[in-house]
Amino acid sequence: MYWLKKNSYIFIVIAAVIIFFIFISKEEPSSPLSASLISSDLEEPTEAPLTEETPAEQQARTAVVDVKGEVMQPGVYEMEQGDRIRDIIDRADGFTENADILQVNLAQVVQDEMVVLIPAVGQEEPAVNAPAGEQTNNNKIKINTASSEELTQLPGIGPAKAEAIIAHRDNHGLFQTPEDLLEISGIGEKTLETLIEHIQVP
Q: What are the residue boundaries of the Helix-hairpin-helix DNA-binding motif class domain, all occurrences included (predicted)?
């Protein structure tokens, strides 16, 4: 018993060391995998900044079109650039029973400030008009809205080339410059030179 009392401090030190190591082992992660999981949980995902379109960019992507005549819901509609006449007819709930759909080019691409006039059967009115008519005040013909008959009034443009111009316009979009006409078979540099003073490209 005397020996135990004399050496009791040794047992106290040993017990303290054991308790210290138990405490340290609880503080450390159990494995490298658990440590990596803990660090990954603390990291917040980064999100790419959102880019907002400017009002000018939004306006460039839209076309405001006025639909009149034989449609169920006439009015002004905001369409996307590249939409076609058939799309705006759908927005207007379709044709009325009196509509002369044979006069309507459903494949034509819409443009800003366009007036779409759907005629009744027996009514001789153009189905699509530009804001100021197909011809400008200086008697130039707007090639983006002119009909086949109006295009044939241009020098060097017969019925076949007029239809080719309309087909290119419908399939590839509106002409942006007079030089775009060179993409049409049968229209070369010389023909374009004679056309430039008679046409208008918005």
A: 149-168, 179-198
